[in-house]
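Quick one - inputs below.
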Amino acid sequence: MHHRSAIFVALAAALLLLAPLSATRVEADENLWGYVYGTDTLPAGKNEIYLWTTSRNQKGKGNYRAWDTSLELERGFTDNFQASFYLNGRSHQISGGALDEDPDRKLHRGLEWDGVNLELKYNLLSVYKDLFGLSLYIEPEYSRIDKISGERMNGFALESKLILQKNFFDDQLALAYNLTLEPEWNKFKASGEREKELEFEQSAGMSYRFLPHWFAGIEGRYASVYPEFKHREGHAFFLGPNIHYAAERWWFTFTFLPQITGKPHIPGRDSDGLHLHEYERYEYRFKVAFNF
Amino acid sequence: MRPAQWTWLPIICVPVPAIAVPAYAATYLTVAQAQQTIFPGQTLTPANITLTSEQTREIERRSDANVRKKEIRLWKVDGGGFFIVDEVLGKHEFITYAVGLNADGTVKQIEIMTYRESYGYEVRNVDWRAQFVGKNAAAPLKLSKDIKNISGATLSCRHIADGVKRVLATYEVALK
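Output:
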């Protein structure tokens, strides 16, 4: 194992093991969904630590597997404003001509440090008190490993979200919608090539509390990419189930998200009904969080 | 380490806090303790009732709150008044609370009996609960109107306020 990987894993494990031991009080900004965000924020003075793992699988040919892992520390600064710091890791297994743009690419790389994010979220309307919930979110990001190819790079992105939520039946049923814009600027180390693109995504989720502590739902993402901030290169639609469990001090969420339909708007590129150039055939995401 | 190996790290970590952390759930008052807190020294007689469908509809119409259970856990107080044990949804579990009503149907006192949520324990604060004292079925019992919200505990505040509103409507429809 690469020494940086070992440090990352050891740090993650240590924080996860120690967090509940130092807990004296519980607050929760639970994620009912794996991908879609709700409007809740942590109350002032409360903290939460998360571990995320997203597995992205298969490009339609060859072998393609990628893992994105984040360790996130979140704190409520006021009852309406929270900030999070992310430490991100990434790994890839690519072979057999999985990448259309670089069919010879073979990569077997374990977990390495990818970058950092800073997330700021502000709640404007409470889903429990107002007609609907409304939050705004902005997240500057630095990344040093390309999400698709695993190439070394220096990448900067600025993700912004508009988050809406409406609850029904005494808050047992929750619906949420996210509108996301994310401009990215990347420079690849090997080639020196620069690229910029805009990711535009609309996502929505539904979650129902079917037993005390247990929520089940579905979530979907409609994502598009605009290279050079100009023409749309393709789109993909993902839809899948999720399950969420919340205890008093911790919770977890698991989402399985296959690509249902997609199209690369690139001349000569066979789509097979999916957009596998920019995205994968299926993803799953697991989040676990502890409050302290 | 191959990537597939450490992918399971978070799943392995899940049971750790479940084992390491004792339950935080809290039962603050039994029924008998809640009765003595609200009606000290007085005699209470069990008088459970089951609402009819008509009464249920009327209570929901007046209170704008769902009636989840038609069986009402009710005690009559010697000398007038009622003691009711009720439940409302918390985010994860039910919140159990007691409402003491004066003979004229106004709130004498409310007490949180069981609270098992991640947050919102502030609803037990004396000052917050005191807002309900003297309210009758005509009171709005709306957050940020006649009931102050507790930031970070909005869901619990709203559900308890809705619950008390429903109990007061129950008095008007089925007990008066």
